[in-house]
Fold this protein.
Amino acid sequence: MSAMSSNTIFLVAPLFIRDVSSQLEWSYSYQTQWPGACKTGKQQSPINIMSRQAVFDKEEGHIHGPLVLRGYRDVTVTSVNNGHTLRWDAVPDLVAPVMSGGPLSGNYTFMQFHLHWLSEHAIDGMKYPLEIHMVHMKTGLTVDEAVLRPDGLAVIGVMCEIYSKNEESEHALEEIMPAVPGLIDPQARMAEPTSIDLTRLLSPDPQSYYTYHGSLTTPLCQEAVTWIVMDKPITISDDQYQEITKADVGGRDNYRSLQPVNRVVYRSLASCSSIIAPSLIGTLFAIVHCLSSTFGAGVNKGICLIGNFKRRLFGDSVKQCAKL
């Protein structure tokens, strides 16, 4: 990425997020009154992701290889309470983290991350106490262009579960917590820039995720987002959660209600391998589970394959299983 394109991204991206929050009067308490695509859109976010209905993209028609994350270990950010969330913005004019691969076509430049409590997405009907959103914009686009394109933005969603205070549970949020006491009041000034390791905020296995096309979860809810919702949560401490949720964001919480799914949700190869049991039979059942989410005939073939496995063990002839 050239110096010019990097400057363009950072000069406009943080302003875009601030303008949306400051110019529009909206509240999480009156979501039915949100304007724009929030009312009229057909592919809105967040959604309840059902793991058994997610499509395993074994042909890589939608997920093209591994997700690539470059430059996330040393990122200079400033923090702010914008009245709706606690947000950490990338500092303009500095080298930006870039995401590519997976379901994405091209490079996406990191803009900011922010927090929602409770989580906005649900997985198999379960909500988490906190969800982190890492917002990226397609490199080379202006903000006006990005929000009008279905592939203009990409957002990583990371779930957080709470454990008692210890070194492990405090590791993920350790670098951002010093700024939180100064963010309780939305009228507080933006904090001084600080350097953090964004990889701490990512799932333990960033290659294990669900992905779908959807929208921003705040007005104007433009349907310009490729969502990458990681399926393995990070751990945070109860003390950290209590401190974060003291922040004045206009109410007790700051999450949008679940929206109709009405579209395909894909799952990565790693998300399938994560359910594999230690035994060989368990592995076969796990593979069948992933294949059956893609094709209705997968279960029958899986049963056939497992039967053949048993037949081979006892020296019997195997059956011909239908091709997927």
